């Protein structure tokens, strides 16, 4: 009986493929080959000094700070100016660097109803406000730091 078990295990082990193994050091080298990081990580401060905002900020905060130093806006925070009632044939175009953007609709004319947040999706095409029927369409644009 024991011999039958050992033979059964040996036969299934021969059929089952072995798991691929790779040293972690190889994965680290491959992942580390992306080149220098973008300027979204500051250099840090020198030992014994208090860091400035430029030296210690990272991520979106650093991006916003660097754009402010250049005299440019980091994020488009201006409201949409609806010049017409968006229709399926002529929707209000919303620009975005992503495939999805949230738009606050207040109706047409402006302030016709309370703000309703609509998820405008690139794949869907035209999205409509459930309150007033105004249509919005997403237009994808490249980010300023696109590489």
UniProtKB/TrEMBL annotation:
Annotated PANTHER family: CYTOCHROME C OXIDASE SUBUNIT 5B, ISOFORM A-RELATED (PTHR10122:SF0), CYTOCHROME C OXIDASE SUBUNIT 5B, MITOCHONDRIAL (PTHR10122)
Any one of the GO BP annotations: mitochondrial electron transport, cytochrome c to oxygen
Stretches the record annotates as Disordered: 37-58
GO terms under cellular component: mitochondrial envelope; respiratory chain complex IV
CDD domains according to UniProt: Cyt_c_Oxidase_Vb
Protein name per Swiss-Prot or TrEMBL: Cytochrome c oxidase subunit VB-domain-containing protein
Alphabetical list of Gene3D superfamilies matching this protein: Cytochrome c oxidase, subunit Vb
GO MF terms held by the record: metal ion binding
Binding, Zn(2+): 105, 113, 129, 132
InterPro entries: Cyt_c_oxidase_su5b, Cyt_c_oxidase_su5b_sf
Annotated keywords: Metal-binding, Zinc
